[in-house]
Amino acid sequence: MSHLLSPRLTDDLIQAIYFIAALLFIIGLKRMSSPKGAKNGIIWAGVGMLIAGLITFLWPGMHNYILIIVAIFIGGVAAWWSGRVVPMTAMPQMVALYNGMGGGAAAAIACQELIRGKPFATAEVVLTVIGAIIGAVSFSGSLIAFAKLQGLIKKSLRYRVQQYVNALLLAVTVALGIWIMVVHGNPAWYIVLPFFVVALAFGILVTLPIGGADMPVVISLYNACTGLAVAFEGFALQNAAMIIAGMLVGAAGTLLTQLMAKAMNRSIANVLFSNFGEVAAAGSGEIAGSLKPIDAADAGTMMAYASKVIIVPGYGMAVAQAQHKVWELTQLLQHRDVTVKFAIHPVAGRMPGHMNVLLAEAGVPYDLIGDLEEINPEFPTADVALVIGANDVVNPDARNKQDSPIYGMPILNVDKARNVIVIKRGQGRGFSGIENALFYMDQTRMLYGDGQEAVTRLIQAIKSLE
């Protein structure tokens, strides 16, 4: 089609379609800010990406159409298949993996542009090199995040001179990047190859020591990095769609990262470099008192005759795939005129919005779900707070104990409820290794067992009262 139009008309058409695609991206992102409009927002953004991809086929100088179409087909089939078969419990690692692919694609584009030896303007080569570094780090770091969440890497790698080694790798990466900039985008392969190898190694080593409890922030940070890498490569290629899409993703990921870090009362640097898991384990002492078990019959009776119940889901609910049973329990309580609400902490689960996604899958209405600021004032009026698999985000030591590693972290005020029931598989500590003072409080009772099985017992207990 492009040969039927003048080069000027072709360029104007491409830029106009890119502008429309950008508007669709922005509309989609805006609608995704609310659970009610999220599904519709994904469609808006998807249509924008589709038309941006199709119009790119008219780009002057495009060739290898067969290879491009085959690659799109393979990637599309793989994405459709994985989206169908990957369970919601594995969604965090899938997000990490897909995010890494975006960073890897940006790095691959930069690599191709650098080794093909085309002359660069100074600004173009600088942006290409910066995008290459960010993309490579995002790619390898996201793969490590995936491996940690998937359980392929079970321990965080920490050693005494770790920060110095990481700093040295970063310095070498930057030095090789400056070398590439000096030769204006026409470097020899023996410069380009070590540049990417060291950048990839830096992404791996900077992510390995980060504990699993911090993975939501890490995923969000690498998502922002991927967006920035794509935007930088878009500038280098003078591709408006890449620039706009990358900047939107980068800005959204940066804001989300800051919000997640704020929700943990920690800086991003603290998340990346503090070895929090070791500090937490060392700083968490024993708590006076004992854990008080309860059986499902008594817990079910307590909830059945309550006026208000607040349910606090955590990663344990995701592991047990108990969200559907939780919704069944909610409906059963509502049938008995019990007011039921859900409390979601910003860092509950293994990725931003993890609990919201699981509850939406089960059919829980959005108006029953409250975030930390909305729901905290309601805990003092709750007869029962039911905690399913959450730990650190309900630990009152974050509010009361100044020497606690999580002191100052905003938490859900579950301890202010009249009665607390905690569903937990065992007596182990949370993912950060900190003992939870909530479990030892006078109004707290422990209902041990797998989340889905325990909620099923609660349902049976409540039904037996009818």
Would you mind describing this structure in some detail?
- The chain is of the alpha/beta class.
- The chain is 60% helix and 7% strand.
- It has helices at residues 7-31, 35-55, 65-85, 91-115, 122-150, 162-182, 189-207, 215-237, 240-263, 268-273, 276-283, 296-304, 315-320, 323-335, 354-362, 372-375, 397-400, 451-463; strands spanning 308-313, 339-344, 369-371, 384-388, 419-424, 444-448.
- Strands 3-2-1-4-5-6 form a six-stranded parallel beta sheet.
- The protein starts with 6 loop residues before the first helix and ends with a helix.
Would you kindly provide a brief summary of this structure?
By secondary structure, this protein is α/β, with parallel strands linked by helices. Helices cover 60% and strands 7% of the residues.
Layout of helices and strands:
Elements: H1 7-31, H2 35-55, H3 65-85, H4 91-115, H5 122-150, H6 162-182, H7 189-207, H8 215-237, H9 240-263, H10 268-273, H11 276-283, H12 296-304, E1 308-313, H13 315-320, H14 323-335, E2 339-344, H15 354-362, E3 369-371, H16 372-375, E4 384-388, H17 397-400, E5 419-424, E6 444-448, H18 451-463
Parallel strand pairs: 1-2, 1-4, 2-3, 4-5, 5-6
Helix pairs in contact: 1-2, 1-9, 4-5, 4-8, 5-6, 5-7, 5-8, 6-7, 8-9, 12-18, 14-15, 14-18
